[in-house]
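Q: What residues go here?
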C-alpha cells in the first residue's frame, strides 16, 4: 500500500515519512504515547476526544538501520519499515505490538452463492469472512493475549475472539452477547500479554470495526468506513499506567458533587407532581436514603424539551424547592429532538439561526422521535452548543440539580438518519457518517459547559451515548437493559470495561429497565448496584413498578440495608472519585487491573474491585445461596464476619439472600460516614475509620462536595497509616478546608 520508504524529515517531535505512495507522520507526544497518522481523508487531526496540545517534551533518538528506522524514547522503541510496517517494543526490547505481515486467512468464509441463497430464505446474514475496510490496521495477535476495554459492549470481560462495531445504536431488543454495538463508541482497548502490556486509541469517528481474533487467531484488526488512520500507541509498565496515559490524552472525570453518589430513584411513568411528592414522602417514611428523583419524558408538555406540563406539574419551582427541603434533588431528562411546531421558541430560534442539521439540498432535516416530527440540533457547531447551554437556564432557575441526556445516539423513529445529512464539525461542514458517533459527546459537552457557566456548582450530566473523552463532561449508564439474570451478570464486565475505557462514573438500571423484575432479582441487583458509581433504580412504562416496597417486607429490608451500606461508604467512594480525577483509575475495577500477572483473574467475569481495597462477589444466579469466590494474593477479610482468608485460592462462600459477599484487603483503613437519609443531612458528620489488620496507608480527601473551590486549594487531605504495632498515625498532607468534628477509629480483629 505504501511502498518503499524514500526519505523522512523531523520537525520537533513529529517525523514525516515519505513512502512511494503516501506520506505519513509519527509524533512522540510523551515518552509513552506515540501517534501514528496516515492522512487518508484530511491533512489534520480531527479529534473530538483530545482537546488542546498534549505533546510534552520527550527526549528520543531516531536512527537508520539496514532496512528500517529506529525511534526510541526512554520507555518505547519503535521500528519503522517499508510499507509503513511498525513494531513497538518496551525499553528492554521485548516485542509488544507488531504489524501483521502475513496473508489474511479467515477461519471460515461463506461463499457469495450460499449467502445469496440463505438471504432468499429470509435470514439476516453476516458474512463470516474477512473484513476489509477502506481504513484499517492489522496487528499480530500472540498466544495468551487478552483484550479489554472498548466501552460498554455486551458479553464477557476479555474481548479476544469477538468482533464489534462502533456505531452508537438505540436497540430496543434485549442486549445479548451477539450484539456488536450499543449506545457508546469508545475506540480504546488494552492488550495484556504474557509479558508486557499496551493500549491503542483508534481516534476515528466514522463507523468502525474491531475483530479481536475472531477472523483468525494470528491477528486482530481495526478499521473504519472512512476518515484517517489515526491511532495512539500507549505504553506503560502496568494496566493502571496505561489507563493513566490514555486519560491524560482524552481527559479525566472531574470530581462530582457528593450528592450525585447517593441513591437515585427513577421511572418512565412518574407523570405528575402528585406522584413525585408521594414518592419522596414514601422514601422518607420507609427510611430509604435518597438524594435524587429523576424526571423522565412525562414532565414535558407534549415531549417538547425545555417545557413543563402545567396540567400535571402546576408549580415546578415550588415542587422542586419542597423536594430540596427533604434533601432530594430533581434531575430532568432532555432529549435532543426539537419538536417541529410554529411559535415554539426552541424550534423558531433554531430555524432562524440555522442551528439544526440539514439535508444535502439545504432544507432542515426532519425525523420522528417522542414529540413527533422533530429536528436535530447540530451540536458539532460551537454556536449551537453555546445556544443550547444558555437555554439550560430554564432548568437552573427552577432549582433543578442535574440533567439527563437521552436519545442522543441520535435515536430516530422514522428510520436511521442518512449518512449524507449535513452537520458541522467546529468550523466546517461534515456528514452524519462522520459525526454520528460524537453526537452524544458534543451534546454532553454543550450541557456540561452550559451548566457550569450558569451555576457555581459542579455540573451533574448523564449521557446515554458517548465517545472517547466523554468522561470529561458526563456520567453514563448502560442504557435500556432488561430484568434478566443474564443482564445482571453482564453488568459486571460491562461496567468494568467502561472503567477501563476512561468512563469511570457509570451504572446500570437497578432491577432492569424493561420487562418485570422479581423480588430476588431486584435484591441481587441492588447488592451489586450499591457499588456502581451511578446508583439508580430505573424502569419502563408498561411494566410493574420497581420501588422496593412493591415486593414485600423482606425485599424492602434487604434493599434498605444496601442503600444504607452505600451511604456509610460514601467517604470511600468520594475518595475514589478524587483518585480518578488525578489518575484516571475507575471506581469499579476488574481484578485484572491490579493483579494482571494472576492468570486466574484474566477472564474473571463475576467479581470486581471497588477501588483497590474492596472485593465484591455478587450473587448473579437465580436461587443461589452460596457462590465460589476467587481471592487474589494477600489476606482478605470478610466484610460481614471479619473472617480472614488467604489469597490466591477459591472459596465457597455462604450467600443467603441478604448477603453479598464482600472482602476487605488486609491493611485497609476504610473511611465511613454515619447513617443519613441524604448527603448533607448531618452538616458536619464524623469520620469513621475501620482499620483492618496489617500494615497499610490510605489518603483521604475532604472538601465541601459542591463547587470548584477545591481547585484553588479549599480541601483537606489526610494520610492515615498503620505501623507494625497496629497503631494508627494521622498526618495532614494539605490544609484548606475545615476539620472533621471527630475522627472515630475502630479496629477489626
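A:
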Amino acid at each position: 500500500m505504501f511502498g518503499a520508504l524514500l526519505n523522512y524529515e523531523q520537525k520537533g517531535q513529529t517525523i514525516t515519512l515519505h513512502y512511494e505512495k503516501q506520506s505519513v507522520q509519527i509524533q512522540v507526544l510523551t515518552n509513552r504515547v506515540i501517534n501514528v497518522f496516515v492522512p487518508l481523508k484530511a491533512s489534520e487531526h480531527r479529534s473530538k476526544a483530545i482537546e488542546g496540545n498534549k505533546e510534552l517534551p520527550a527526549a528520543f533518538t531516531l536512527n537508520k538501520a539496514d532496512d528500517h528506522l529506529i525511534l526510541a524514547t526512554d520507555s518505547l522503541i519503535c521500528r519503522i519499515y517499508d510499507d509503513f510496517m511498525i513494531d513497538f517494543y518496551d525499553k528492554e526490547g521485548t516485542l509488544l505490538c507488531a504489524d501483521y505481515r502475513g496473508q489474511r486467512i479467515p477461519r471460515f468464509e461463506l461463499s457469495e452463492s450460499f449467502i445469496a441463497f440463505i438471504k432468499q430464505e429470509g435470514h439476516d446474514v453476516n458474512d463470516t469472512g474477512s473484513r476489509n475496510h477502506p481504513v484499517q490496521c492489522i496487528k499480530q495477535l500472540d498466544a495468551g493475549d487478552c483484550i479489554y476495554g472498548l466501552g460498554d459492549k455486551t458479553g464477557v470481560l476479555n474481548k479476544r475472539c469477538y468482533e464489534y462495531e462502533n456505531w452508537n445504536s438505540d436497540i430496543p431488543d434485549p442486549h445479548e452477547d451477539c450484539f456488536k454495538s450499543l449506545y457508546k463508541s469508545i475506540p480504546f482497548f488494552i492488550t495484556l500479554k504474557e509479558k508486557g502490556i499496551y493500549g491503542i486509541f483508534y481516534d476515528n469517528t466514522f463507523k468502525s470495526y474491531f475483530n479481536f481474533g475472531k477472523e483468525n487467531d494470528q491477528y486482530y484488526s481495526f478499521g473504519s468506513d472512512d476518515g484517517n488512520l489515526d491511532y495512539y500507541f500507549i505504553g506503560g509498565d502496568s494496566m493502571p499506567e496505561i489507563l493513566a496515559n490514555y486519560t491524560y490524552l482524552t481527559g479525566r472525570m472531574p470530581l462530582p458533587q457528593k450528592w450525585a453518589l447517593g441513591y437515585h430513584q427513577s421511572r418512565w411513568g412518574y407523570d405528575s407532581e402528585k406522584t413525585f411528592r408521594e414518592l419522596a414522602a414514601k422514601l422518607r417514611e420507609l427510611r430509604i436514603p435518597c438524594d435524587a428523583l429523576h424526571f423522565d419524558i412525562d414532565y414535558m408538555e407534549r415531549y417538547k424539551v425545555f417545557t413543563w406540563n402545567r396540567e400535571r406539574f402546576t408549580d415546578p419551582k415550588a415542587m422542586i424547592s419542597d423536594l430540596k427541603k427533604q434533601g432530594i434533588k430533581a434531575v430532568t431528562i432532555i432529549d435532543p429532538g426539537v419538536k417541529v411546531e410554529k411559535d415554539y421558541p426552541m424550534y423558531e430560534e433554531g430555524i432562524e439561526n440555522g442551528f439544526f442539521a440539514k439535508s444535502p439540498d439545504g432544507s432542515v432535516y426532519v425525523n420522528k422521535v417522542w414529540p413527533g416530527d422533530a429536528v436535530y440540533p447540530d451540536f458539532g457547531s460551537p454556536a449551537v452548543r453555546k445556544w443550547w447551554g444558555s437555554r439550560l437556564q430554564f432548568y437552573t432557575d427552577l432549582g433543578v440539580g442535574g440533567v439527563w441526556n437521552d436519545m442522543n445516539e441520535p435515536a430516530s423513529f422514522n428510520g436511521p438518519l442518512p449518512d449524507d445529512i449535513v452537520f458541522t464539525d467546529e468550523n466546517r461542514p461534515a456528514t452524519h457518517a462522520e459525526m454520528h458517533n460524537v453526537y452524544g459527546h458534543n451534546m454532553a459537552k454543550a450541557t456540561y459547559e452550559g451548566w457550569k457557566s450558569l451555576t457555581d456548582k459542579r455540573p451533574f450530566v448523564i449521557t446515554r451515548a458517548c465517545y472517547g473523552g466523554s468522561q470529561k463532561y458526563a456520567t453514563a449508564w448502560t442504557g435500556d437493559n432488561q430484568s434478566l439474570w443474564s443482564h445482571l451478570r453482564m453488568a459486571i464486565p460491562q461496567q468494568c470495561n467502561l472503567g477501563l475505557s476512561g468512563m469511570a462514573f457509570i451504572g446500570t438500571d437497578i432491577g432492569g429497565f424493561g420487562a418485570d423484575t422479581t423480588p430476588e432479582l431486584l435484591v441481587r441487583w441492588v447488592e451489586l448496584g450499591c457499588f456502581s458509581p451511578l446508583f439508580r433504580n430505573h424502569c419502563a412504562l408498561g411494566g410493574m413498578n420497581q420501588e422496593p416496597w412493591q415486593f414485600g417486607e423482606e425485599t424492602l429490608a434487604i434493599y434498605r440495608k444496601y442503600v444504607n451500606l452505600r451511604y456509610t461508604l460514601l467517604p470511600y467512594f468520594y475518595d475514589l472519585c478524587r483518585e480518578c480525577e488525578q489518575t484516571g483509575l475507575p471506581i469499579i475495577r476488574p481484578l485484572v487491573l491490579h493483579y494482571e500477572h494472576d492468570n486466574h483473574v484474566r477472564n474473571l467475569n463475576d467479581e470486581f474491585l471497588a477501588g483497590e481495597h474492596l472485593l465484591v462477589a455478587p450473587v448473579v444466579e437465580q436461587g443461589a445461596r452460596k457462590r465460589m469466590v476467587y481471592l487474589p494474593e494477600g489476606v482478605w477479610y470478610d466484610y460481614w464476619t471479619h473472617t480472614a482468608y488467604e489469597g490466591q485460592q477459591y472459596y465457597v462462600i455462604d450467600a443467603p439472600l441478604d448477603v453479598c459477599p464482600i472482602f476487605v484487603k488486609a491493611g485497609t483503613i476504610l473511611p465511613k460516614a454515619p447513617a443519613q437519609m441524604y448527603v448533607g443531612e448531618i452538616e458536619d458528620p464524623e469520620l469513621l475509620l475501620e482499620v483492618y489488620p496489617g500494615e497499610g496507608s490510605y489518603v483521604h480527601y475532604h472538601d465541601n462536595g459542591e463547587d470548584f473551590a477545591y481547585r484553588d486549594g479549599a480541601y483537606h487531605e489526610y494520610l492515615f497509616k498503620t505501623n507494625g504495632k497496629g497503631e494508627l498515625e494521622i498526618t495532614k498532607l494539605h490544609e484548606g478546608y475545615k476539620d472533621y468534628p471527630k475522627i472515630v477509629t475502630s479496629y477489626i480483629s
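A: Context that may help when evaluating the design: The longest helix spans residues 439-454. The CA atoms of residues 626 and 654 lie 4 Å apart.
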